[in-house]
Structure to design on (399 residues):
């Protein structure tokens, strides 16, 4: 008897991992119709008060849409999608990973590998302990003073642990989007990522935890004492082959060959320096969490209807922050990136909680996107924006 078709074998493996509770995640990509619909779908298990569900995160160009489905309903929906609406599917489970590649003519290829999935199924629920990409008992968390020997946060470090775990949760789908597994077959050189302004290295180590051997990460930090500390912890935790720290500033980073750049809580125009560095290096993934957006506030001369409100300092400050970061997002889109802004967990030295993520998606220089940048700048009376200057986009309105 001949073997079942590749798609049917993949679906059977999916049903089995869901039934056994070993599913880590499932990603669907390569939409058959590349129009205005979702670009990919990320699926993971969640435990809700109403029972076990699968969480669907539909990733569009400009937004994410999340829906939770009971297992039976989710499997029916996935059977409809796999090989039809989405031609590629990747399954990651505790003891197996599988990749299904379908063609428009109905033929398909299945590749299965044993022992390559996550160590345990994801269990993220409202009333159960969550599984995190960064486990609380990771040795480097203990060495950096975040947790104790039992994996519990030390006094005053609960927020830091939460921030680290949230960062890893946000980065995982972004990494899958920027560097899909099908585009990096076995034997591909490791990704080269830079964390510009790595500080004490909490989030740099988290990135290394998420990526594992897929990447070589360099943390750049001005303070030599922190560089020495982080390198010692990396050695003690046997991470020195994929994680290292060097002393320097953002403008001194050698970015040639950089695949991804991260800069969290870089003050004022240092965020623009980091973004320009990544764009110039052709990085596929950029992630920043801006703070201290001071550059635009003196320039703000918005529409007269806003003038009475902006006499209040708090409103002027918030408008300056909005204008600064909205222009950054639009400038990245003009530079050829698919960008999104969302809420992050603030750090101990700043209350800012906005994160901007951008994935390389197209050729730069779209005139319509340039016009959108200029119109927003003109609305607020902005004549100069650091990132526009570094990317050499003139903000002056065009006739």
């Amino acid at each position: 008897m001949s073997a079942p078709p590749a798609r049917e074998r993949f679906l059977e493996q999916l049903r089995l991992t869901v039934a056994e509770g070993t599913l880590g995640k499932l990603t669907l990509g390569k939409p058959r119709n590349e129009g205005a619909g979702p670009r990919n779908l990320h699926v993971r298990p969640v435990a809700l008060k109403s029972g076990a569900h699968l969480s669907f995160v539909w990733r569009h160009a400009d937004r994410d849409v999340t829906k939770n489905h009971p297992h039976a309903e989710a499997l029916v929906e996935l059977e409809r999608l796999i090989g039809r609406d989405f031609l590629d599917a990747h399954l990651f489970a505790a003891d197996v990973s599988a990749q299904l590649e379908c063609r428009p003519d109905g033929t398909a290829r299945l590749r299965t590998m044993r022992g390559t999935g996550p160590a345990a199924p994801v269990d993220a629920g409202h009333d159960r302990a969550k599984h995190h990409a960064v486990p609380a008992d990771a040795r480097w968390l203990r060495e950096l003073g975040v947790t104790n020997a039992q994996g519990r946060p030390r006094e005053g470090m609960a927020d830091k642990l939460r921030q680290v775990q949230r960062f890893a949760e946000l980065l995982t789908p972004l990494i899958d989007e920027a560097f899909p597994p099908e585009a990096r077959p076995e034997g591909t050189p490791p990704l080269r990522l830079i964390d510009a302004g790595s500080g004490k290295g909490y989030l740099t180590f988290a990135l290394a935890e998420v990526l594992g051997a897929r990447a070589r990460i360099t943390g750049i930090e001005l303070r030599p004492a922190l560089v020495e500390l982080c390198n010692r912890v990396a050695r003690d935790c046997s991470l020195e082959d994929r994680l290292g720290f060097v002393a320097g500033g953002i403008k001194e980073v050698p970015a040639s060959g950089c695949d991804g750049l991260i800069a969290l809580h870089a003050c004022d125009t240092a965020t623009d320096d980091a973004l320009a560095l990544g764009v110039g290096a052709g990085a596929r993934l950029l992630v920043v969490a801006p703070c201290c957006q001071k550059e635009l506030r003196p320039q703000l001369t918005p529409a007269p209807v806003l003038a009475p409100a902006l006499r209040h300092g708090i409103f002027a400050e918030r408008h300056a922050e909005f204008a600064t970061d909205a222009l950054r997002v639009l400038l990245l889109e003009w530079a050829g990136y698919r960008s999104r802004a969302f809420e992050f967990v603030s750090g101990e030295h700043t209350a800012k909680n906005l994160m901007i993520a951008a994935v390389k998606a197209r050729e730069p220089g779209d005139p319509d996107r340039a016009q959108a940048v200029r119109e927003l700048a003109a609305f607020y009376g902005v004549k100069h924006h650091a990132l526009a200057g570094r990317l050499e986009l003139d903000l002056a309105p065009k006739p």
